[in-house]
Recover the amino acids of this structure.
């Protein structure tokens, strides 16, 4: 990394991820995962994306490769600790190190609070909370051995505040209790892991607001009306935060939540 005359690093170098190896769970999907993968790969990292569906992971990786990005797809069962350990061993065996982990994969279930089954409730808890814990716990020994690593967890504005059910209208959408509980837990988990593995592993959290994805027009109108910046999140709005937290630009940042929501949680 080049330094200026006063000993400080060039800002372009601080954000450069060339040579870094990153794993992004849920990286074969759209939304948050797609933005994270592109952001890391566009700044030089080699990115391993995971999905329960092996075909989906490899197909998505091939699409990124068409854009000249270094992305590899792998199958992963997020609730299977042995499967997670095997994935991490594969990554380290192939690339010799692992530098960045994004815990992005998440499940949701839109069944109303009054009727959601215990089975569906526990499934969301196991993927969103236990899966995040297991991924982090399995990757930590390798990062500690190299005295350096970055973990970024993905929460949600509904990990901070309760959803305004009125914005959903007759869209059939909602944000259920089980989802908000898991996203709140991820924020606490971030703070715990940041202090537990300091100073070697930095652990931070991104708290996204709603991303536009051709939702019901009534919902979009209501959501925008409550957003100070007057729109939902776009295709690039999470990329800056992702690169910042993954790179040396945030070398003195740990245990923090970066809220990227157009001001939604300000009101």
């Amino acid at each position: 990394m080049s330094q200026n005359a006063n000993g400080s690093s060039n800002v372009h170098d601080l954000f450069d991820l060339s040579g870094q190896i990153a794993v992004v769970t849920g990286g074969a999907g759209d939304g948050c995962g797609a933005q994270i993968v592109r952001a890391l790969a566009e700044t030089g990292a080699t990115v391993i994306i995971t999905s329960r569906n092996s075909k989906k992971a490899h197909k998505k990786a091939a699409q990124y490769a068409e854009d000249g990005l270094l992305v590899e797809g792998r199958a992963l069962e997020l609730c299977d600790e042995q499967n997670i350990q095997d994935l991490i061993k594969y990554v380290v065996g192939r690339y010799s190190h692992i530098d960045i982990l994004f815990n992005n994969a998440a499940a949701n279930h839109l069944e109303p609070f009054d009727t959601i089954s215990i089975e569906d409730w526990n499934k969301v808890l196991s993927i969103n909370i236990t899966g995040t814990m297991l991924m982090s716990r399995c990757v930590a020994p390798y990062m500690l051995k190299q005295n350096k690593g970055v973990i970024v967890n993905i929460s949600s504005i509904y990990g901070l505040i309760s959803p305004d059910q009125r914005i959903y209208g007759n869209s059939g959408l909602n944000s259920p209790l089980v989802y908000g509980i898991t996203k709140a837990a991820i924020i606490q988990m971030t703070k715990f892991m940041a202090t537990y593995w300091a100073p070697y592993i930095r652990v931070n959290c991104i708290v996204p607001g709603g991303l536009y994805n051709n939702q019901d027009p009534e919902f979009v109108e209501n959501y925008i009306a409550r957003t100070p910046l007057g729109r939902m999140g776009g295709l690039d709005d999470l990329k800056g935060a992702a690169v910042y937290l993954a790179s040396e630009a945030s070398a003195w940042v740990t245990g923090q939540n970066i809220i990227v929501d157009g001001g939604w949680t300000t009101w």
In short: The longest helix spans residues 118-145. The radius of gyration is 18 Å. The beta strands are 21-25, 46-51, 71-75, 100-103, 149-154, 201-208, 257-260.
